[in-house]
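Bump. Still looking for Acetyl-coenzyme A carboxylase carboxyl transferase subunit alpha structure tokens.
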Amino acid sequence: MSNSLDFEKPIVELEDKIREIETFAKESDVDLSGEIEILRNKVKDMKKNVYENLSPWQKVKIARYQDRPTTLQYIEYILDDFIEFHGDRLFADDLSIVGGVGLLEGMPVTVIGHQKGNDTKENIKRNFGMPHPEGYRKALRLMKQAEKFKRPIITLINTSGAYCGIGAEERGQGEAIATNLLEMSKLKVPVIAIIIGEGGSGGALALGVGDKVAMLEHSIYSVISPEGLASILWKDSNLAKDASEVMKLTSEDLLRLKIIDDIIKEPSGGAHRDVELMSKNIKDYILESISELTNQDIEQLLTKRYEKIRSIGEFEER
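Sorry for the wait, here they are.
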């Protein structure tokens, strides 16, 4: 992997070397299986040492990694017969949010998610996964449609934040996000929200109100980016690494703080290493959550969602 993350380069180089030896052994008809097995075990140990001891900044890098699977990639593995819907019926179709209806083991579900690109051209097309107000209004339109037809809703979150350009502000960016928060809290169908990469600020939260909120193991979720926090606190965005250490933005931090409900395990090395396995883990989690949530009546579901939202955060009464 030529554009590998800096801290995994030794692993990637050794894996490349193993492939070279395997090719040489095959072409030369030489048995090097013993040597190859030793190197594979070394790679396994290196992965365990690296990926079980990731710093918050390293997790930020994995969450933002260009090759990290996108919403549409997961949909391809998880759903059958997916039909994407477009437009907010008010202004335009925002390509940084995708959504539609598909079959999950034969059950109709609505899936909505932020969509980044895996290269510069796609990222420009998708506005780097930063939605305009029409993106959030499209998402809300699909959620209300799902409520009408009693379909569970699944959101896949991966954005550095909502787009803050002049046009977005003129068209009511803050109102669009606030309306989504209000309406999602009242939806009369199960809602499952999963942070699959970077969950940034209100741009992420606008798809993040759910009965179940989960994060992939190496994703992040925060009210501001590390660069933004460093700029505000220390007037220097280059101190982003230091900021990430104090922000409590990893999945382990947020589970401990009871902001999320679950962590979905990633393949060794991250979701980009095995999209099929990662998709299976996500699908299993969704199926288990839907089974649990559909056994509750609507009033019970809404009450628990309300209590969940109200209980977020640590505070003292005086």
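The chain has 14 helices and eight strands.

Edit: fixed formatting.
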